[in-house]
Amino acid sequence: MEIAQASVLEKGFAATSIEEVIAEAGITKSGFFYHFRDKNELAREMLRRYVAENDEIFDDIFGRAKELTDDPLQAFLLGLKLLAELTRDLPGGHPGCLIASICYQERLFDSEVHALNTNSVRRWNERFLGHLTEIAAMYPPREPVHLYDVAAMLSCTFDGAIIMAKALKDPSQLERQILAYRTYVKILFSR
């Protein structure tokens, strides 16, 4: 799975061949097809694994932040700061986003992969919306905004910064963009 994911993030799903994955993994073609019926099944399992790993990261970071303060705004801001620091420590920058890779090459995937991808993005947006709703109950936004859009903005910021970092060959983009989003949230909900 790690070999396939690294290849997809580097070259895209279409350019990643089953032959290449099995050669690097040191398994036979029949061994591959024992685990995966086809390339779409590989994509589903990679996506499930990727989402679970990211959910674990978000649970850990934002959970730790909530343990440190009862104030929902301060907890979210702290969580964003921890997330930015995590991205700073990635060797060579963030490897890329599997969700985006699937969106960019959508014609290669079946409806189950598309549904899994869509639901993953919606769940992350709902996760962030939960934080923002809790914040807005204590700190009404200074400007009229839809909280769902502010929640989705974090996903857009994250994926957009990954693209920008790769295009500009500047891994610090991700950390800086998360911190810029953090500043926006801080200003939006300040009294």
Give keywords.
9 helices, 191 residues, Tetracycline Repressor, domain 2, single chain, mainly alpha
What does this structure look like?
The chain has 191 residues and is mostly helical. The chain has one domain: Tetracycline Repressor, domain 2. The protein is 77% helix and 0% strand. It has helices at 2-11, 18-25, 29-35, 39-68, 72-88, 98-104, 111-138, 147-168, 172-189. The longest helix is centred in the N-terminal third of the chain and has 30 residues, at 39-68. It starts with a helix and ends with a helix.
CATH architecture: Orthogonal Bundle
| CATH topology name | Tetracycline Repressor, domain 2
Total of domains: 1
Helix content: over 70%
The major beta sheet can be summarized as: none
Order of helices and strands: HHHHHHHHH
Strand content: under 5%
DSSP strand tally = 0
What is the overall silhouette?
elongated
The CATH fourth-level homologous superfamily: Tetracycline Repressor, domain 2
Indicate the radius of gyration in whole angstroms.
18 Å
* Individual helix count: 9
Note the gap between the termini: 47 Å
Q: Which CATH class?
A: Mainly Alpha
Structural class label: mainly alpha
The whole-number mean of residue pLDDT values reads 87
The low-confidence runs, each spanning 5 or more residues with pLDDT under 50, are: none
